[in-house]
Every structure is written in C-alpha cells, then in structure tokens.
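Lab notebook, bench 4. The sequencing result for the construct came back, and we need a structural model before the next group meeting so we can plan mutations. Quick request posted to the team channel:

Model the 3D structure of this chain.
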Amino acid sequence: MNSTAPPPLELPGAGIGWFERTLLGAGIRAADRFIGKDRLTRMFRQEAERAMVVARGLSEAQGRERVRIERFIGIEDSSRDWSVYMTLEHLVIVNTAIAAILPQLYSNRVVGTQVKIEEVKPVPEAGPEQIDDLAALVDRYTDIVDKLGNLRTGAGLPHPWFGTLSAAQWHALATTHNSTHRRQIERIKQALS
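Done. Here's the predicted structure in token form:
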C-alpha cells in the first residue's frame, strides 16, 4: 500500500502573504473605525465562548487530537495541524499578551514590547484545562478593556504583519483573531466527525 505523507507545513512565524496581510490589516482598521469598543468587546467574548462550547462538546481524546485542516484566510500554514486544545491555548497566549499591551498603549507608556508570531505557538500537550484558562482570560481581558477609556488615544505598537496598531486596533485584532481560531476549532471538530 502506497502512503504519501502530506507536504510539510511552513515554519512558525512564516506568516501569510502580502495581499492577505493587507486585506486583514484593512479589516482590522475598518473594525476599529466603524465598530464601537463595547460592541467589539461583546464580539470578542462571543467568539471565545463559541470556541469553548465546541471544545466542551468533545471528549478529552478528541480535544487532544491534532488534525490537519485546509488553510483559510487569516491562519498561518504552521497552525493548520493543531488540536482543539492547542488552538485554545494559542488564544490564551495571544489574548493575554494583548491584555498586557492595551493599558501600556492607552497610557502612552510602552515598555520594550516586541511581538513575534513564532513565540505565540501552543504546545502539543495542551489539554482540557485550556477551556477554563480561556474563560478566565476572557473575563480578565474584557474587564481591562471596560476600565480603559477611548482606546484610540495613546501610543501605537507594531504588529509583524499589520504594521503599527493603536490600542483600539489591537482590540479589533483580538476580536478578529478569536473569530479566526473559532472557525479553526469548528473545522477541526468537523474533521473529527
């Protein structure tokens, strides 16, 4: 029986193409401009909750199973073979970092922060604890955002793909990011069925 291995994935941090980066960056900036902070916060929470509902509906073995999915807009090639729990851990890592960045940008006091895509990858051992970790992070994140005023003021911080973003744009990115990986989780679940 001839079995061919799937082609290797790109290295973490390889990114997404120029056109896709440009399109997503424009979408993030448009979301900041046309969607209010409170609505973005509700959307941030809803997307994370939808991802957690899917994860809770899986057995632990299913949640740990790595599944290679087709690439879709917004997802880096190296992220296409994660488990549901790995995807949740990635959301915890990224959203924790953005939650730390927002007050710094808001107060115009950015302390040596540099974002590196390859440093926000999950570990294969991620387990069901990621569901509770994400739930706690979502509460903490939304509490931070609620306490900050106008996120359009303050400093900007460069994102490796989307250029310099204000606090409001980082918040829009966090919401978009939750949505992207919620879709990833749904595709993993579908592949497991």
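The chain has one domain: 25-66+79-192.
Will bring this to the meeting.
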